[in-house]
Amino acid sequence: MSSEKSGDVRATRHIRLTSHPGQQGPSGAPAIHWGAATAAKRGPVIGTTTNRSQRNVIGTHSGSYGVYRALAVAAGNLVKGHRADLTNTSPTDLIGPNPQWGEAEKMVSIDPWGASVADVFSEHIAQGYDVRPTIAVTKAHIDLPEIRHAMVFQRLIPDNRVLLENGSAVVTKVAIEPVWWLPGVARRFNVSEADLRRNLFEETGGMYPELVTRSDLEVFLPPIGGQTLYIFGNPRDLADSNVTLTARVHDECNGSDVFGSDICTCRPYLTHAIEECIKGAQQGGVGLIAYSRKEGRALGEVTKFLVYNARKRQLGGDSADKYFLRTECVAGVQDMRFQELMPDVLHWLGIRKIHRLVSMSNDKFDAITGSGIEVGERVKIPDELVPADARVEIEAKIAAGYFTDGAVPDGDQLAATKGRTLG
Amino acid sequence: MSSEKSGDVRATRHIRLTSHPGQQGPSGAPAIHWGAATAAKRGPVIGTTTNRSQRNVIGTHSGSYGVYRALAVAAGNLVKGHRADLTNTSPTDLIGPNPQWGEAEKMVSIDPWGASVADVFSEHIAQGYDVRPTIAVTKAHIDLPEIRHAMVFQRLIPDNRVLLENGSAVVTKVAIEPVWWLPGVARRFNVSEADLRRNLFEETGGMYPELVTRSDLEVFLPPIGGQTLYIFGNPRDLADSNVTLTARVHDECNGSDVFGSDICTCRPYLTHAIEECIKGAQQGGVGLIAYSRKEGRALGEVTKFLVYNARKRQLGGDSADKYFLRTECVAGVQDMRFQELMPDVLHWLGIRKIHRLVSMSNDKFDAITGSGIEVGERVKIPDELVPADARVEIEAKIAAGYFTDGAVPDGDQLAATKGRTLG
């Protein structure tokens, strides 16, 4: 084990560039026993920047917004060491504990106890440990134009429980920050933990040397976006496989989800899924939308727009047979979303069966069923909801393995499926 | 200057935990002269993880999605050292160069040459430098239910240029990744560069030791979300202050922007702004939506939902007079969005006057005008678009300084403005 040598080019106060095992001393941080059946045995996840000796993870809270918090301290807006006042913030609905919480390998990217820290780690907090929630659960009314439209056409009828007369749907919603247990993440991707740590460090240009100096710290709070759940009906029904579950796992696409770009099916499929969730909940079932912050297949929006240009300018124009190729040329991969980690949230909710999966993605289907969750029906996006310029995408995906109950397009058909040129 | 001592707890290959000035050797990275008037004098921003000796920044490309790229390399999906094939990816519309690009302090968080690297740094690329775009410009058709609704009520009439018969609006859209010039960012926040660097490092739990070891590297690619622009009309008109500009600067709110939560005015104000942008462009002007990834006032969604619960459960219920207090108790600040950096994108576009600013925010107004851009009219959200449960927010903000042409609520009125309880 190498000893540390740290340097500070400007300030006078000592800056520690990284830490090494054993430096903290015996009084330090509580141990984390990932996958232990109870919160007491598992121990709290502590990513505070206030008291270094309490820390038992690499990284800090709030995903990428930790950078803004650091900026707020630098700018003098936020007092260094502010402790959150958690009064009245506890979950509106209890999720779990579910049996899956006691199986380490079932959930490697979520802290199952992250919503209830004020309760289950109250003793630690009373002793001065800065334990923060990584999950928050609240209630909301959501009002979407597409749902009002479905009401006008009487595809949806208000019941004043799930869907109100004014067009609002009543939901429980959950925000979740990523908490990665590195040994488990490595196993999901069939790599050694050492290789995972080293690549996470080196391929980010040197983020968090503790990834390589602190093999004793097994938990990483990565600076990335998390996910949001929208639950229609009673959240506790999610864990009851006798209650019909309608679910969509949706990956963020700002251009469609917010702005309605017609080059893909993202928002239409999402709002169709919400309609199906409402119907399902009205019929005594429960609905779930799991929304992940993975813009542009987790390549980010700059890469996504570069690919759009390359698709629309290539020789022969934008065609379904070259859909994946253009992404691969620019980004080096067709997709970076890693559905391998996606089922974690389903296990957190206690789900054992999805009766109606509103997704055609084979990657998502394989990840879900591969993790031990049964899938019943797969619900396609209705043809009339596919936007004008999105045929290229959907046909290319069907040819590559996306679910369909129709014909799979052949090479000629793919080549003939063309999108708009750049105007 | 301290020398480096690096350690590797597991692997056999040497891992460098951080770097120090001068290690790269003379053949190394091109210099960056921030604010230089031409691309050649400024030099390329190089955040590659492929060839360390080329790097002239801290951090890497793609904002927080750099973590996914690292995961892709670890998982063996992405070949280490993949170089992007930029064929056909160049901008559909040229933005600039504008005179503001030659003023270092006007833009401290965007690389003005980030869209045109394949062109302006073609020689570097030919020499093997891994220069990547941080900005991408493309064309799109966007189709929003609210715009179709405005057409039904003949508030909008298709002109087949800006707005098509089928309800789609024709836009130029731009994705931008953050590129922070640290000396300039520090001056924006009136802190020393050393304090900024130190706090960014320490308050993220030790991200990027180069922030403190490499004072010679002045540029940082932070792992945070960027922004997206939607331009209605001719993008080059943005730099012409004789052309009427309608603009909204919008901060992400996934719960409203995508899901239509009725607790705030975000999506209704955004779609109203899009309607105003379309109208303006049809009348010979130009429209701009600048959308920033700053979820929940850049506190993140977990904190946002915790605050919702605290607001709705407090003694006396959710009321406008305690709106800001609840955020401050949980998060330590009322807001972490830092409008100080927001005007950069306006200067990048060459904007000198916003004739119609579709925003009531005093923070945004102050930041824009303080940066030297003239603002004409300020356009309120129409009363009928404020959702049921969003009165608390909008009244609290008006009392705190948001623009209004009506009366400012007093203490009694604020206390009487109540939101829904948790049901």
Question: Secondary-structure blueprint of this entry?
Answer:
The structure is a homodimer of 423-residue chains.
Chain A: H1 39-42, E1 58-59, H2 66-74, H3 117-120, H4 122-126, E2 135-142, H5 145-152, E3 169-176, E4 180-181, H6 182-188, H7 193-202, H8 210-213, E5 219-221, E6 227-232, E7 245-251, H9 254-257, H10 266-282, E8 286-292, H11 295-298, H12 301-313, H13 323-331, H14 344-348, E9 353-357, H15 362-370, E10 374-378, H16 391-399, H17 411-416
Parallel strand pairs in A: 1-5, 7-8, 7-9, 9-10
Antiparallel strand pairs in A: 2-3, 3-6, 4-5, 6-8
Task: Walk me through what this model shows.
Two copies of one chain form a homodimer. In chain A, 30% of the residues lie in helices and 13% in strands. Chain A has 423 residues and is an alpha/beta fold. Chains A and B meet through β1, α2, β2, α5 and β3 of A and β1, α2, β2, α5 and β3 of B.
Biggest interface between protein chains, with counts per chain? A-B, 154 and 152 residues
Computed over alpha carbons, the radius of gyration of chain A is 23 Å
Read across the widest sheet of chain A, the strand sequence of neighbours is 2-3-6-8-7-9-10
Q: Separation of termini of chain A? A: 60 Å
Helicity of chain A, in percent? 25-40%
Order of SSEs of chain A: HEHHHEHEEHHHEEEHHEHHHHEHEHH
Number of strands of chain A: 10
Shape of chain A: globular
- In terms of quaternary structure, the protein is homodimer
Mean pLDDT of chain A: 93
Helix/strand/pairing class of chain A, anyone?
alpha/beta
Which consecutive residue ranges of chain A, at least 5 long each, have pLDDT under 50?
Answer: 1-11
What profile does the largest beta sheet of chain A have?
7 strands, mixed
Share in β-strands of chain A: 5-15%
Count of helix runs of chain A: 17
